[in-house]
Amino acid sequence: MTHPRIPRLKPFSAVLLTAILLTAAQIVLVPVAFGQNTEKGASSKEASGDTAIVGQLTLDLGQGGSMKLVLIPAGKFMMGNQDTPAETVKKVGGMERNLVDEYPVHEVTISKPFYMGIYEVTQAQWKAVMGNEPWKAERALGYMRMQPRPQGFDDYPVAFVDSYDAIEFCRKLSKKTGRSVSLPTEAQWEYACRAGTTTTFSFGDDLSKLIDYGWYGGKNAGQKEDYAHRVGQLKPNPWGLYDMHGNVWEFCRDWYDKDFYSRSPSVDPENTTKTDKPSLRSGAFHSVPTVSRSAQRNSWTSPKTVRYNYGLRVIVAADK
Ligand SMILES: [Ca+2]
After folding, report:
1. pLDDT of 96-137, one tens digit each?
2. For residue 36, how far is its CA from the centre of ligand 1 (angstroms)?
3. Residue 157 Cα, ligand 1 centroid: separation in angstroms?
4. Helix, strand, coil: what percent of the chain each, to 5?
5. Residue 245 Cα, ligand 1 centroid: separation in angstroms?
6. Which residues, 6 or more positions from 263, have their beta carbon under 8 angstroms from its beta carbon?
7. 163-177 and 123-130 helices cross at what angle (nearest 10)?
8. What angle do CA 101, 109, 320 make, to 5 degrees?
9. pLDDT tens for residues 191-250?
10. For residue 231, which of 216, 242, 245, 217 has the smallest C-alpha distance?
11. 89: CA distance to ligand 1 center in Å?
């Protein structure tokens, strides 16, 4: 089986747009609700307690809690692995047979802008929305007893949740904020992770730099992590998103199908045909580095699987 190398795209205008928006947000700091006129945005702010500036959104979770999101512009990108399996293994290790679901590389249009959580959902945010602490549940205790547990877990990513829990979190957060909150599709996730790049990681192809951008593990990684790390400690990707490579896996909205790329629509693809697996992206703190690549897909999880390294990140529609 051969995988022809696809010519790499020139940087997208979307990258420039985002840079302008983010720069404007930092310099001007004028409260303007994206996609709404100022008057409407002001009333929305009064009603929900949410705040929005150009390119950014902060959701009010109540009791002092909040969630920061950044605007991801609409645009096009090449989804999938632009290297051959052999090239990928040479760069980051792993096995070629585990990469078959990353082809064919195909152009995808993300037709609408959306806000994406700057960080993975934290334990404090989960508790504020759901009112429970799944990381303290019986199913989590065995693992937690095996490791040191830092004090003050609030800024650590939530884990020990399954795909249905993640969807329920989005439903409750939608109700709480009056906004359309969901998990990202795999396409939205990869688009945001790549942030205009076509390389193995959002910072390029150099595996030695992964340690600056993502928590990962594995015996060859030079570090052995025992638990997820506090969010946002390492460098963000070009669009201001942290921990897209590693720390905890992040549930996505699609049902996983290894052959979906060969038949997926070119605009806003999402596999809504139920399979026996949810989709996850990102890799995790103890994972080998190859699974932290931008194109990596998780093919081994059942919908009710709960693990110490499975969490989530949410998106919010920007046109509402
Ligand atoms: Ca992650």
Report:
1. 999 999 999 999 999 999 999 999 999 999 999 999 988 877
2. 31
3. 9
4. 30, 15, 50
5. 5
6. none
7. 70
8. 120
9. 999 999 999 999 999 999 999 999 988 654 545 556 788 899 999 999 999 999 999 999
10. 242
11. 21
CA 84 to ligand 1 centroid distance, Å: 24
Distance from the CA of 37 to the center of ligand 1, in angstroms? 34
Burial (CB count <10 Å: 0-12, 13-18, 19+), residue 317: middle
Query: What spacing in Å lies between the alpha carbon of 291 and ligand 1's midpoint?
Result: 11
Cα 52 to Cα 24, 33, 36, 67, 275, distances in angstroms: 13, 5, 10, 12, 37
313 CA → ligand 1 middle, Å = 8
If you measure from the C-alpha of residue 175 to the centroid of ligand 1, how many angstroms do you get, rounded to a whole number? 25
| CA 217–ligand 1 middle distance (angstroms) | 13
Q: Which domains does the chain have, with CATH numbers?
A: 72-317 (3.90.1580.10)
What is the sign, positive or negative, of the torsion defined by CA atoms of 125, 129, 131, 136? negative
Strand ranges inside the chain, DSSP E: 51-53, 56-62, 65-72, 75-79, 106-110, 114-117, 181-182, 249-255, 278-281, 310-311, 315-317
The tokens of 115 are what? 């806000």
Tokens representing 39 are 């008057």
Taking the centre of ligand 1 as the mean of its atom positions, its distance from the CA of residue 215, in whole angstroms, is 8
Please report, for the chain, how many H helices and E strands are present, in that order.
8, 11
**Distance from Cα 146 to the centre of ligand 1, integer Å:** 22
pTM score of the predicted model? 0.83
Q: How far is CA 234 from the centre of its chain?
A: 15
Q: Please, which pLDDT band fits residue 26 given cuts at 50, 70 and 90?
A: very low
CA 119 to ligand 1 center in whole angstroms: 8
How far apart CA 62 and CA 15 sit, in angstroms, is 33
- How far, in Å, is the centroid of ligand 1 from the Cα of 40? 34
- Kindly report the number of other CB atoms within 10 A of residue 234's CB atom: 17
